[in-house]
Write a structure and sequence with these properties.
This protein has five helices and five strands, in the order βααααββαββ. It is α+β, with helices and mostly antiparallel strands and about 130 residues long. The protein has one domain: Alpha-Beta Complex (Ribosomal Protein L22, Chain A). The strands form two sheets. The chain has a three-stranded antiparallel beta sheet with strand order 1-5-4. Strands 2-3 form a two-stranded antiparallel ribbon. A hairpin with a 7-residue loop joins β2 and β3. The longest helix has 19 residues.
């Protein structure tokens, strides 16, 4: 294990920022795939808040926080009923490779107005 990270976010905070700043905020923080996935949901802001928390948790697990990385360097991907995965690119991907991180395990949950995420950076052979 290389690092752990956790974050909790208010869904209302994400909703308010998204409504106030619109596409500028959404495109700065979320990838096209994340937006496509979340905007189809019954409560897209709950989904977006969960991904925001996951990005924070992953960056904390990498040991940097947002320093030197873009929000979109971390993409939260989910297919079918499989658990969410963190796909790293850009500086986050480079940092993970430099530190020998093979994968980042991710757990996300949300309930009403709160979203929480936990990330665990795992060292290993093939890096992310």
């Amino acid at each position: 294990m290389e690092g752990i990270g956790t974050d909790i976010v208010s869904v209302e905070r994400i909703r308010a920022v998204a409504l106030r700043r619109g596409d500028l905020f959404l495109q700065r923080v979320f990838t096209e795939g994340e937006l496509e996935y979340c905007l189809k949901r019954k409560d897209p802001y709950q989904c977006l808040a969960a991904r925001f928390a996951a990005k924070e948790a992953v960056l904390k697990a990498l040991g940097t926080g947002l320093l030197g990385c873009r929000w979109t360097d971390v993409e939260v991907v989910r297919s079918g009923s499989s658990p969410p995965e963190a796909h790293l690119s850009g500086n986050a991907g480079k940092l993970a490779g430099d530190r020998g991180i093979a994968r980042v395990l991710l757990s996300i949950s949300h309930e009403r107005d709160m979203a929480v995420a936990f990330a665990l950076a795992i060292k290993g052979g093939n890096t992310v």
